Amino acid sequence: MKPLNSPNPVHEAVRAESLTKVYGDGDTAVKPLQELSVSFPAGCFTAVMGPSGSGKSTLMHVLAGLDVPDSGTITLATESGPVSLAGLSEKQLTLVRRANIGFIFQAYNLVPAMTAEENILLPTSLSGGRNVDSEFFDQVVDRLGLADRLGHRPFELSGGQQQRVAVARALVSRPAVVFADEPTGNLDQTAGAEVLDLLRTAVDEFGQTVIMVTHDATAAAQADSTVLLSDGRVVETLHHPSAPQLAAAMLQAASSGSAGSASGHDRVTEAGPQR
Ligand SMILES: Nc1ncnc2c1ncn2[C@@H]1O[C@H](COP(=O)(O)OP(=O)(O)OP(=O)(O)O)[C@@H](O)[C@H]1O
């Protein structure tokens, strides 16, 4: 894992430049990422929104080193300096991910044979058991209402409880960057609010960077900024938008499609501090 020679601006946690991803070829080719460039500031909560199929999940997987772009670069700020994911071997990438990244998957991705507690502690046990802060573990588990479910295996948990186990798993080792793909999608309003609250706390109290895909404008309004995707590109970045402003921006992105991103430059909207 070799730090880049070019200095990365201090306050950037993740930077992507000209990312392209293509599935298939010819007439059936799908391009979920089209020369997409984006930067996520460190210690901030950023939401990613966009119409279905606009490339949100693909972007998250590629940024987290779980999938590889066809072209473009991703730079991750680590304790030892900025690291370009493209320059890493599979083994180095795994180590960088374990040390720096937490991921909350849309489909939970829990290990069926393991209890909730074992699932939550899996990333830390894979790294040799380091960074297990039992007080923080208890705090996260309590906040997510999982204290009496720790001995259960995933099939004994509801979908919402499984999602909360996945959230706890991503947070307990306190990675610098947490990617969350629709973390509240399967939760009721109360459980969803707890998860958002915990992600907000991760940013405000623990200085982590959270990048969250959501379809829910109210959830996105909890974030500091929202990056809006359309057709595999960033079309707008809204700072401190309200839920109605986000809902309106989403409608516009859905109706304008690729026309909104034709210039290749995204708009930046400062919508004021209301949430
Ligand atoms: N492994 C794959 N093979 C082929 N096509 C894929 C694959 N993964 C994603 N796609 C396609 O890439 C496009 C973007 O998918 P992606 O899941 O990134 O979108 P999304 O914005 O997250 O959508 P949603 O909001 O519906 O979850 C879609 O057209 C999808 O069908």
From TrEMBL:
Residues 256-275 are annotated as: Disordered. It comes from the Bacteria. Pfam families: ABC_tran. Keywords: ATP-binding, Nucleotide-binding, Transport. GO terms for molecular function: ATP binding. SMART domains: AAA. Signal peptide: none annotated. Residues 14-256 form the ABC transporter domain. This is ABC transport system ATP-binding protein. It comes from Nesterenkonia halotolerans.
